[in-house]
Structures are given as C-alpha cells and as structure tokens.
Amino acid sequence: MEAVIRIEKLTKRYKETQAVKDLSLTVRKGEIYGFIGLNGSGKTTTLRMLLGMIKPTRGSCFLLEEKVKLSNYKLWEKVGYMVETPYAYPELTVKENLELIRKLRLIQDTRAVDHTISELQLTPYANRKAKHLSLGNAQRLGLAKALLHQPEILILDEPVNGLDPAGIVEVRELLRNLAKNKGVTIFLSSHLLSEVALIADKIGIIHHGRLIEEFEADRLESLIERKLLIGTRQNEAAAKALASQGIACRIGERGFLEISGKDMLEKPETVSGILVNNGFSLIHISVEEESLEAYFLRSIRKESGEP
Ligand SMILES: Nc1ncnc2c1ncn2[C@@H]1O[C@H](COP(=O)(O)OP(=O)(O)OP(=O)(O)O)[C@@H](O)[C@H]1O
Known about the structure:
Layout: E1 3-14, E2 17-28, E3 32-36, H1 43-50, E4 58-63, E5 66-67, H2 73-76, E6 79-82, H3 94-104, H4 112-119, H5 135-147, E7 153-157, H6 165-182, E8 185-190, H7 193-199, E9 202-207, E10 210-216, H8 220-223, E11 226-232, H9 235-244, E12 250-251, E13 257-259, H10 262-266, H11 268-277, E14 282-289, H12 292-303
Parallel strand pairs: 3-8, 3-9, 6-7, 7-8
Antiparallel strand pairs: 1-2, 1-4, 4-5, 9-10, 11-13, 11-14, 12-13
Bound molecules: adenosine-5'-triphosphate (ATP).
Organism: Planococcus dechangensis
Domain ABC transporter: 5-233
Pfam family, one: ABC_tran
C-alpha cells in the first residue's frame, strides 16, 4: 500500500541536545500511527520537521511522496495539523475563528464551517468567544481548524490533551471514522500508551529521539506480560513443591507466588492440581496483566539497558 507519510533517517540536533536521531518510519494510506514517548523524547520536534516548520540536521520527510518544503503550498492544501497548544483568536467566537480560517485557506464551500462545527460537537459553543472556552473545547476548535479543508493527512500533537473522558471517546471515534471511511492518514503523538492503543493501527515508541519499538496495535495484546498469582498459607514450601515439578516461580512483592510463561497461564489447573496434591490449600488464584503504561516503561527501560 502507498506510503503517505515517509520519514527517512531524520536527525535534529540543537547545540548540546540530540532531539531526534536517525528516525525512519512510514505510514500507509488510511492508517493511524500513534507516536508515543515521554516528555522531551522528541515527538514535537519530529512533528515540526514533518510539517516543514523546522529544518532537519539530516534526513528527510515525504508527504504523498513529495519532499516536505514549507514553500510547497499545493502540498499543504492536503494536510491538516495541530501542533502544541491550539491557538485561536481569543476575542472571536468559535464560528468567527473558523470563518476566518476558511477565508484564509480560500475554501469555497461556505457550509464547511457549520459542517465542521457539528462534526466536532461544537454547536452549543459556536457563538462563544474562544477565550471563554474550556481546555477541552479549545482543543476541539484546534481540531476543527485542522479539519476544515478536509485534508488527506492529519498531523496532531497530543490531540486529546485536556479533553474529558467523553470528549476523548468522541475524538477517538471521529479520527477512526476519518481514517476508515474517508481514507485520511493520521499521525498523532501522545505520552499515553493506553489512549493511543485505542486509536492507532500502528504504534511507534520514541525515546531520547530514537524510535525504539514499532508494532501493529493489535499485537500489543501479545506483547503485554501476564502472571499467574497464587496464594497459599505456606508459600515458600509451595514454591519448592512447584519447583520439584519443573515450574519456576517467585514470591512477589504482594506475597503471592508469581508464575509467568504462557503454558502455565493457559493451564492454571496444572499448578493448582500440584499444590492441592501436595497438601497445600489455595487461598488466592488470579491472572495479573501488565498495564499498558507499565509495558511502555518496561520497553524504555529495556532500551536503556536497565534491569
Ligand atoms: N528550540 C529548541 N532548542 C533547544 N532544544 C530544544 C528545542 N526544542 C526542543 N528541544 C529539546 O529537544 C528535546 C526534544 O523535545 P520535544 O519538544 O521534541 O519533545 P516532546 O517529546 O515533544 O516533549 P513534550 O511531550 O514535553 O512536548 C528536549 O530535550 C527539548 O528540550
């Protein structure tokens, strides 16, 4: 499938700081790419280079197979973006702000403003001055500006920042609908893996400016670690009984026996059978799943060589 966004060996250095290093990735048509990293990991710098706002030290970005250049006006007609805090004219209403953008972008269709206002569920606030909007609605206005000209590509920095849970769901549905039904290609950054996991098709983790991991979002399920937690009244003796049957376990921080490994997770009855046959009664058995955030941090620790 066509690579709509292509980043090749992108590097940005600010004097002492290596903000982005040798970063390459591609995003195909209609795909949502979630770009995640801790604060200061290089997300915004990458997005700004992708939008031609800053010049890479090395490497290149391509949108729709055209090399990114600020002066390529034809290309920017096909791209919508929201980078960092969305800016709006504070004294103008939501509708006036969008009307201004419509005229600046030479969008002929006069219905575009009302259509986008309703798409972003901003109708109740259409006549409210931007300076009186909540953080969540200011974020929606930022998204409305990015979407007004119905772009083929959307580049969004932390698009659900400041939204309440219902707002997050709405924006998630909107972005998924744009990608699936209108073929819009979306590149979005976030520092929250759990949120990105629900929106994105593909996820890339950036750390210290480098892409340290990339996977299809539906693989996340298999990447997340799970543990079987077992409680008995004599955990140390129970651990020995299991070890004598070739089942490795450790006593975790919460005082449960912890067993990892796919085999045992799929057959907890094998473990419980051994314990019961050896005279141990079970007072707890459960499967614990690593949180998405824990996976994210584990992956970063692995990259940094930490245990
Ligand atoms: N104009 C600049 N001059 C010097 N250093 C910069 C500049 N812009 C960014 N940096 C540095 O580059 C690194 C990456 O910053 P960047 O803003 O891209 O990270 P980020 O992942 O977007 O972080 P956040 O989630 O906090 O926005 C940081 O160490 C930052 O301090």
